[in-house]
Amino acid sequence: MTRRSPAGFEEVDPGPGWDALPLPALVLDEQGRVTAMNDAAEVWLNMSRNSTLGRTLDGDEMGTRLRIHPSLSPLVFRVVQGDEPLYQPNVRFEIGDRAGGHQERRALVHAGPAGELGGGVTLLLVPQDEAGLQSQNRAVRTAARSAIGMAEMLAHEIKNPLAGIRGAAQLIGMNASPEDREMAEMIVSESKRIVSLLEQVERFGDTSAPNLRAINVHDVLEKVRRSAAVGFAKKIGIVAEYDPSLPDALADADQLTQVCLNLVKNAAEALKDTDRPAIRLRSFYDHTLRLPPDETDPTGRPLPLQIEIEDNGPGLPPAIADQIFEPFVSGRENGTGLGLALVSKIITDHGALIRVDSRPGRTVFRISLPKA
Ligand SMILES: Nc1ncnc2c1ncn2[C@@H]1O[C@H](COP(=O)(O)OP(=O)(O)OP(=O)(O)O)[C@@H](O)[C@H]1O
Ligand SMILES: [Mg+2]
């Protein structure tokens, strides 16, 4: 069934049941223009049929009302060409609101051929808001605390005897044959490595309670971006996408800098074998985000300020993906595995939240902070 709209394209009528469908659904023609959408799609996309029919979802036609990442055009094209259904998980929809802001939603997009509806493609969106993000929870946090306490104590205890071992090896090396001297030097250099690891552990224990102030997160991000661009991330394109209308956050600027530096450094390290490596720093507002409720705060503290650090590297190594925030878990040769444990400790001390969403080609760490 079709009827001709004033704009000159064919609006299709998918028939009864379509509007009762609990999932957002749309029909596109072969050029990707919307020829039908159901009630759930109007609500979920926050767009009326009137303003949507006849237009393409991707690209400039929707202006700031809708942005889709990644673009759905290749998917639609492949379905039209291949005439078989395809899925795309984790599609991000930036949906504009009347106030000029936007909110972000995610969906798994199922695209199937719409043969009986005049060709084109039927899109079914399965919302996956937040589902793909693993949360950093309280249990992990406590485990990190006690492991760190233990490690700190050990660090302190090991340093003294180690200094003795090192001194003795230096002495032996002075009067030894060339081969023995080489071994003595190895003892010295390995002990040095242990000392620097221990110092890192001790520094970890030193992080004091955050000094919470109203701060501009963009100042922090810019500082991190500049220092990365001249230092460890020289060869990597770093893109900044900030929402200039973002209000101040309640945070400790120095500690937040340390957190972001650690995340950008990890991203840079993950990108070392990636073609056209890129890091994206993003800020935006999402008033729906809260800390998970608990006894002290049954509604959950609002955490509307979002910072994302994204890279196009290989993603978290699957074997450790669930434990990266725990101390001494590292997927890198020579990594100590303390970077993210420190990040997690600082964020927790802020009453804030950090989560990660990772797959090959795209890893995003998201920090959610309270408003000042
Ligand atoms: N952006 C990322 N992409 C892929 N893997 C990552 C990313 N960030 C962290 N990881 C993985 O998580 C592990 C833990 O990170 P973490 O910062 O805690 O330790 P590290 O970088 O190995 O050592 P350290 O930071 O103490 O020098 C890393 O070794 C790496 O395998
Ligand atoms: Mg690290």
TrEMBL record:
This protein's UniProt keywords: ATP-binding, Kinase, Nucleotide-binding, Phosphoprotein, Transferase, Two-component regulatory system
Tell me, what is one Gene Ontology molecular-function annotation carried by this entry? Answer: ATP binding
Superkingdom in the source lineage: Bacteria
Report the InterPro entries cross-referenced here: HATPase_C_sf (IPR036890), HATPase_dom (IPR003594), His_kinase_dom (IPR005467), HisK_dim/P_dom (IPR003661), HisK_dim/P_sf (IPR036097), PAS (IPR000014), PAS-like_dom_sf (IPR035965), PAS_4 (IPR013656)
Keyword DNA repair among record annotations: no
Mind telling me which CDD domains this protein's record contains? Answer: HisKA, PAS
Annotated PROSITE patterns? HIS_KIN (PS50109)
Residue ranges of the Histidine kinase domain?
153-372
Keyword Kinase attributed = yes
What reaction does this catalyse? ATP + protein L-histidine = ADP + protein N-phospho-L-histidine
Q: Which residues form a coiled coil?
A: none
- Give the EC number(s) under which this enzyme is classified: 2.7.13.3
Q: What is this protein called?
A: histidine kinase
Taxonomic placement: Bacteria, Pseudomonadati, Pseudomonadota, Alphaproteobacteria, Rhodobacterales
